[in-house]
Amino acid sequence: METLCSAVVFPSFKIRTSQFSKYGSIRASLAIEQQTSQTKVALLRIGTRGSPLALAQAFETRDKLMASHPELAEEGAIQIVIIKTTGDKILSQPLADIGGKGLFTKEIDEALINGDIDIAVHSMKDVPTYLPDKTILPCNLPREDVRDAFISLSAASLADLPSGSIVGTASLRRKSQILHRYPSLNVEENFRGNVQTRLRKLSEGVVQATLLALAGLKRLNMTENVTSILSIDDMLPAVAQGAIGIACRNNDDKMAEYLASLNHEETKLAVSCERSFLETLEGSCRTPIAGYASRNVDGNCLFRGLVASPDGTSVLETSRVGPYVAEDMIQMGKDAGEELLSRAGPGFFSS
């Protein structure tokens, strides 16, 4: 286990220091927490990755816990523990080539099981459909905007990019949908790194455009970097995009109680529907899959699902409408997955 509490550096790309005021100075906050942890035993230790976005999500979790539970608002009551994951360590290869599932959660889950931390804060789209033994995930915070943002210094949208332009993304889901609609574009699929790193690469001309989750940019107060926002029709989001999940040990009633107080049920139900779809497909990290459950104007659940070939030549879509109730929504995701499995046929998911 490699646990780090280190300073975070933010490369510049139209980024103002004031954009991080929502959470204060991450570097200073971590320094204070490290100093405090030496003098007082924390009541609750939050495990997280060390990227600026992961830390923003951890601080959001901390702030909500402090606001809801007076004993956690005391100085030093909550400690944030940074854990470096496999996905953070290996940046030279595409995610699909190094295992995909669990790359950003495995070491954090191990720390949770071993008792090195008390709760684990994850981006839900990084969480495998099967949770590790001895853990539960009882809490989803209110979901952010699920859409993808288009960012470019030379074009207003994907449609405006000249033929042959390079779009950077580490997501096969984005790659397949881009190429399906704009086959004249090229996609650099090993465009990895945190938000700041990707924006720096864009500013250096490595690519002509990139797509990032709007949720992350909002949580980092970096929306001024957005050139345009893609509609759900143009780019169906990843399963659980924009949702934060918080896990604890299955025998830790106190932590489960804390997390239950933060849970946003509408988000949790939507995420459960989408993850049921993903689990049914049993999609590998080499299969582009997208899924989104939302409440429609009638108050019911509208689910949309998609699978595609990596080159975008084959895209299969389906949708379901039903009651916004846990059992119904989980079944909707399963039914949608079974339909697309049948339509895709043998070999589609192993290619």
UniProtKB/TrEMBL annotation:
Residues 44-256 form the Porphobilinogen deaminase N-terminal domain. It comes from the Eukaryota. Its main location: plastid. Keywords: Chlorophyll biosynthesis, Chloroplast, Plastid, Porphyrin biosynthesis, Transferase. InterPro entries: HemC, Porphobilin_deaminase_cofac_BS, Porphobilin_deaminase_N, Porphobilinogen_deaminase_C, Porphobilinogen_deaminase_C_sf. Its cofactor is dipyrromethane. GO terms for molecular function: hydroxymethylbilane synthase activity. Residues 269-341 form the Porphobilinogen deaminase C-terminal domain. Pathway: Porphyrin-containing compound metabolism; protoporphyrin-IX biosynthesis; coproporphyrinogen-III from 5-aminolevulinate: step 2/4; Porphyrin-containing compound metabolism; chlorophyll biosynthesis. One of its GO terms (cellular component) is chloroplast. It is found in: Plastid, Chloroplast. Its EC number is 2.5.1.61. GO terms for biological process: chlorophyll biosynthetic process; heme biosynthetic process. It is an enzyme of class 2 (transferase). HAMAP family: Porphobil_deam (MF_00260). Tetrapolymerization of the monopyrrole PBG into the hydroxymethylbilane pre-uroporphyrinogen in several discrete steps. Belongs to the HMBS family. This is Porphobilinogen deaminase, chloroplastic. It comes from Phaseolus angularis (Azuki bean).
